[in-house]
């Protein structure tokens, strides 16, 4: 069962090949056996999952089913879940049980999916390697000495290892696409505002977006059908019709205009990654697409702009973690300031503190215009680069990350870690959708092809990715780890 | 724009983060390198460009003025560090 | 040296919405602690704000009432600081693009002249919770029921030159917001709160002096007292060779002084930036026209109409238009009785006096406007005389009857205007008072007018107060003179 896609499992549930309870028990067993090696889950909710599975089987028996009824999933531990701990990878929330479900969780529950648990992540989604979790790093199932990427590293590793058929992630600067690339799975970051942020713990509110991580684009399309849509509780969610993302998966690609941003193929790009990506582009040409080079001239300013805007928003978003109404509180505070300072110093890890300090500094008097206002202006230029490019081409393609997964502990300097996100970060600043699909291996570690579209082009991205996955089978390859624990 | 230790201390105070002397030194190093990277922004001519706060040019939707919430105090306070008589407790605040 | 005082006010008005500015929790006052603080108000992780349309409409109505430009695009910013009763570590406010732009308010000074006070802007923001300092095991208790209540902060230009002007301005704002119905204006419950910026400068100097901001000035009286104290303090300080420090001071109504709030916080740096959870608020002309069409008559217009159309004196017009409740009461009395001057006299005379004696507000008057109007119409149509009217008023006040006519009927207070009946009573009084008649006859003609009072009194007594005094007077004079 572990090597099947969510779409295949849904078909098997429908045909009665096995029950949701059997399927759920199977994945719970795999988690039990294998996750001590990966550390991809923070919380496993076995009992609750089995109950949900029974309910799904009963619903199926009563004929009240949707396509995803009874499908087990995992949720990044950033989505609030009623009665189940939501830690956001932080000591600050080690004791936090949300009294509500995030909108994404509500929708998945309503669709009859089963939650197996909450996956590990970089603390407050700040990181590109999943080494910033209070609960320890996650290992990459393709190579246990490598990182799974971040911040949705737990979700990516769990799906890649076959511990769960799909998982929900969030992406603020590449946190779905980069771990999907590192772990050899398919991950979609939708257009900003396409999926509700309600109940998703905020890192950088103008950049955060939830999305599916699964074995195939088709799986992602099924999940998007559930989670996309307007939410009255999120002012930034968009009131715009949601297509059936599976409807257009098989549209032919002849005449598709692909742009290759020259800035995505420059210095620092691993040659094996580059050749894998170029091979993938050739597959598209064979499917009838045309390819041309385009330019996104402000690409190199995306990381500097992001490291002003994201930390600024984060410094404010994380102020609510003050030890008063929820979360960690230090012992015996002498006064209110002491309560704040020690609770926060004890509750937050190094990277979170670094970003809070950067954000606080760049917003403060005398620095605001030079940093924050400047970064927002550059943000407009970056968005314009994409809008201009989409005047000429339908989609953009390039690597999701300049290298395959790097070794655990390899990047000690924060700036060199930040530079990992060079190809993913501009996408969040522009608010456009992006998908990473497995496109080969480099040194035994997966390579991700990133495909970008204009605002609300998710259906097109899924179609383009699906056609590639019909022509190739990189997405079906499993790491040896998955077989070992099968 | 060079970053001084005083900047880090001031930011730590504003952000209510306890920072030891050792940590402060480390943060000055890290933050200086991050800000050096950020300073590349100054090279771009942004004359006449207006700041972009949201990626979509959307406008605020308004909610009808209706009371939709009920009292859930007991549930909300289950995850609170210290409560008494329905109040959240903090060390005595002197006005 | 002659000093001039310069005052600017920041008035926080709680808007009378049913739910909070960014959540669906109730704004009701006085609920048990934290029972009206929902997940959004508490700043629980993952929660997000959605703007209340009524808060926007109310802010716009205020802006229209003070002739402000309404911003086509306004933006919410975050004001970042930590405080125990500020759940998210920031207050959502409007720093750079407030919803209400520059406007003006007309105030009436004691000498009856008017002055324009300019409004710098007004912006929407969320209220904080409350810290309760009673001893909870040596701790402070936090109640977040108030957190998220919509506030309109109205910032004036430094246009006021005396404590009286400041109080008049505050009253004008109070009357505008209560007329509009966008706030209950209840200062005791904190629905309207005021910070005062005060500075002094030598008369004739153009540059402003250094100002102090006085917080917590929460009644019309306190505004005058706080300013009076602060002005004196600043002048004394400067005249003694010192200088005013720009600082925040707290008004202590018990000791009638302001004192420095040094303890609160060293230099703040609020790090305002646009709230990424909220989008720009865009209002179009059609929306503004719609709200403009719904504006009620405002105090200044009402005052002018009372004076020009109803013929009231400037004083009466100003008193009767000061509050919406008073104006509505008066207009109902007028509507029922049809005589503006009589209505004004009764509302400001008998009714105001009675309310004052029992310390009641017009909204709690035991006599309704309709009841008073009916009573006044019986005076106007001569059914009862003034004396009887006072009796009826008292009976209504004491709840001894539902309406004036019933009381007049049951107490037999109807004025007797039947000439025959009056003549009969007069004849009897004259017949029973031979000595007085003789005196009258013998008196000098110019003294007789005074002496007639005795006979009038006797006739009124005989009629138990119901005879029409003018009529009695006329008939008596004719009859007595016929005896000469």
From TrEMBL, chain A:
The keyword Ligase applies. It comes from the Bacteria. Its EC number is 6.3.5.7. Keywords: Ligase. This is Asp-tRNA(Asn)/Glu-tRNA(Gln) amidotransferase subunit GatA. It comes from Vreelandella aquamarina.
TrEMBL record, chain B:
It comes from the Bacteria. This is Asp-tRNA(Asn)/Glu-tRNA(Gln) amidotransferase subunit GatC. It comes from Vreelandella aquamarina.
Automatic annotation (TrEMBL), chain C:
It comes from the Bacteria. This is Asp-tRNA(Asn)/Glu-tRNA(Gln) amidotransferase subunit GatB. It comes from Vreelandella aquamarina. The gene is gatB.
């Amino acid at each position: 069962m572990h090597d099947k896609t969510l779409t295949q499992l849904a078909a098997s549930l429908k045909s009665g090949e096995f029950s949701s309870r059997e399927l759920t028990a199977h994945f719970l067993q795999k988690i039990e056996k294998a996750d001590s090696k990966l550390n991809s889950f923070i919380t496993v909710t076995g009992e609750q999952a089995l109950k949900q599975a029974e309910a799904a089987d009963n619903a199926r028996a009563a004929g009240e089913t949707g396509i995803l009824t009874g499908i087990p999933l995992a949720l990044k531990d950033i989505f609030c879940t009623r009665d189940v701990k939501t830690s956001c990878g932080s000591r600050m929330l080690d004791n936090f049980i949300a009294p509500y479900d995030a909108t994404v969780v509500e929708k998945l529950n309503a669709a009859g999916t089963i939650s197996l648990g909450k996956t590990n992540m970089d603390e407050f989604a700040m990181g590109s390697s999943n080494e910033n979790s209070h609960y320890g790093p996650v290992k990459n199932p393709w190579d246990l000495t490598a990182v799974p990427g971040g911040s949705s590293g737990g979700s990516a590793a769990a799906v890649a290892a076959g511990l769960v058929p799909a998982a929900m992630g969030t992406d603020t600067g590449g946190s779905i696409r980069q771990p999907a690339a590192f772990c050899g799975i398919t991950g979609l970051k939708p257009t900003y505002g396409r999926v509700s942020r309600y109940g998703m713990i905020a890192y950088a509110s103008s950049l955060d977006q939830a999305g599916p991580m699964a074995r195939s684009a088709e799986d992602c399309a099924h999940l998007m059908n559930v989670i996309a849509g307007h939410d009255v509780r999120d002012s930034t969610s968009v009131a715009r019709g949601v297509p059936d993302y599976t409807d257009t998966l098989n549209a032919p690609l002849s005449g598709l205009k692909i742009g290759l941003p020259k800035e995505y193929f420059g210095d620092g790009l691993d040659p094996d990654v580059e050749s894998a990506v170029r091979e993938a582009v050739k597959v598209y040409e064979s499917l009838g697409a045309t390819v041309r080079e385009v330019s996104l001239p402000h690409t190199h300013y995306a990381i500097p702009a992001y490291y002003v805007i994201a930390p600024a928003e984060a410094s404010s978003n994380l102020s609510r973690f003050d030890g008063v109404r929820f979360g960690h509180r230090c012992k015996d505070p002498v006064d209110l300031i002491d309560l704040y300072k020690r609770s926060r110093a004890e509750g937050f890890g190094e990277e979170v503190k670094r970003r809070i300090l950067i954000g606080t500094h760049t917003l403060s008097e005398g620095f605001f215009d030079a940093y924050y206002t400047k970064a927002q202006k550059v943000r407009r230029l970056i968005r314009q680069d994409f809008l201009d490019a989409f005047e000429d081409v339908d989609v953009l393609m390039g690597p999701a990350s300049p290298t395959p997964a790097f070794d655990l502990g390899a990047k000690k300097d924060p700036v060199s870690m930040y530079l990992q996100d060079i190809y993913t970060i501009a996408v969040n600043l522009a608010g456009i959708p992006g998908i990473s699909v497995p496109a080969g291996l480099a040194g035994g570690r997966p390579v991700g092809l990133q495909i970008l579209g204009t605002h609300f082009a998710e259906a097109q991205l899924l179609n383009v990715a699906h056609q590639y996955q019909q022509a190739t089978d990189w997405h079906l390859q499993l790491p040896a780890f998955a077989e070992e624990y099968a | 724009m060079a970053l001084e230790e005083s900047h880090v201390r001031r930011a730590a105070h504003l952000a209510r983060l306890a920072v030891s002397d050792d940590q402060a030194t480390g943060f000055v190093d890290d933050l200086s390198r991050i800000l050096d990277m950020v300073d590349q922004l100054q090279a771009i001519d942004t004359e006449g460009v207006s700041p972009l706060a949201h990626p979509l040019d959307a406008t605020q939707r308004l909610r009808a003025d209706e009371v939709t919430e009920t009292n859930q105090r007991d549930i909300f306070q289950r995850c609170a560090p210290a409560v008494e008589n329905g109040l959240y407790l903090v060390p005595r605040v002197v006005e | 040296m002659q000093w001039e005082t310069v005052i600017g006010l920041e008035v926080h008005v709680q808007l009378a919405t049913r739910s909070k500015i960014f959540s669906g929790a109730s704004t009701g006052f006085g609920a048990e602690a934290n029972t009206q603080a929902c997940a959004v108000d508490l700043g629980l992780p993952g929660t997000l704000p959605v703007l209340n349309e009524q808060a926007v409409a109310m802010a716009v109505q205020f802006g229209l009432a003070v002739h402000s430009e309404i911003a086509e695009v306004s933006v919410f910013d975050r004001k970042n600081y930590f405080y125990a009763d500020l759940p998210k570590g920031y207050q959502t406010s409007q720093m750079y693009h407030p919803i209400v732009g520059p406007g003006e308010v007309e105030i009436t000074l004691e000498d009856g002249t008017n002055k324009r006070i300019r409004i710098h802007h007004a912006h929407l923001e969320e209220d904080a919770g409350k810290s309760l300092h009673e001893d909870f095991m040596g701790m402070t208790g936090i109640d977040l029921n108030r957190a998220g209540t919509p506030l309109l902060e109205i910032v004036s230009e430094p246009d006021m030159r005396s404590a009286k002007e400041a109080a008049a301005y505050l009253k004008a704002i109070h009357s505008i917001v209560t007329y509009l119905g966008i706030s209950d204006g209840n200062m005791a419950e904190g629905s309207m709160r005021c910070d005062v910026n005060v500075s002094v400068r030598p008369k004739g100097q153009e540059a402003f002096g250094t100002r102090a901001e006085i917080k917590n000035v929460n009644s019309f009286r306190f505004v005058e007292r706080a300013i009076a104290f602060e002005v004196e303090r600043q002048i004394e300080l400067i005249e003694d060779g010192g200088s005013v420090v720009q600082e925040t001071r707290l008004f202590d109504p018990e000791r009638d002084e302001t004192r420095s709030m040094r303890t609160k916080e060293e230099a703040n740096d609020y790090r305002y930036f646009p709230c990424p959870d909220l989008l720009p608020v865009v209002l179009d002309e059609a929306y503004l026209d719609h709200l403009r069409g719904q504006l009620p008559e405002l105090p200044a217009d009402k005052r002018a109409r009372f004076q020009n159309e109803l013929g009231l004196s400037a004083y009466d017009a100003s008193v009767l238009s000061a509050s919406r409740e008073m104006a509505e009461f008066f207009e109902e009395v007028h509507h029922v009785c049809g005589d503006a001057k009589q209505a004004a006299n009764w509302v400001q005379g008998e009714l105001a006096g009675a309310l004052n004696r029992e310390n009641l507000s017009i909204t709690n008057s035991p006599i309704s406007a309709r009841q008073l109007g009916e009573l006044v119409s019986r005076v106007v149509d001569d059914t009862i005389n003034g004396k009887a009217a006072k009796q009826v008023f008292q009976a209504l006040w004491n709840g001894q009857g539902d309406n004036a006519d019933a009381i007049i009927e049951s107490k037999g207070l109807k004025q007797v205007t039947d000439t025959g009946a009056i003549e009969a009573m007069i004849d009897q009084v004259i017949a029973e008072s031979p000595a007085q008649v003789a005196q009258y006859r013998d008196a000098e003609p110019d003294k007789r007018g005074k002496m007639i009072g005795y006979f009038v009194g006797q006739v009124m007594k005989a009629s138990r107060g119901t005879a029409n005094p003018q009529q009695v007077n006329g008939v008596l004079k004719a009859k007595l003179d016929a005896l000469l």
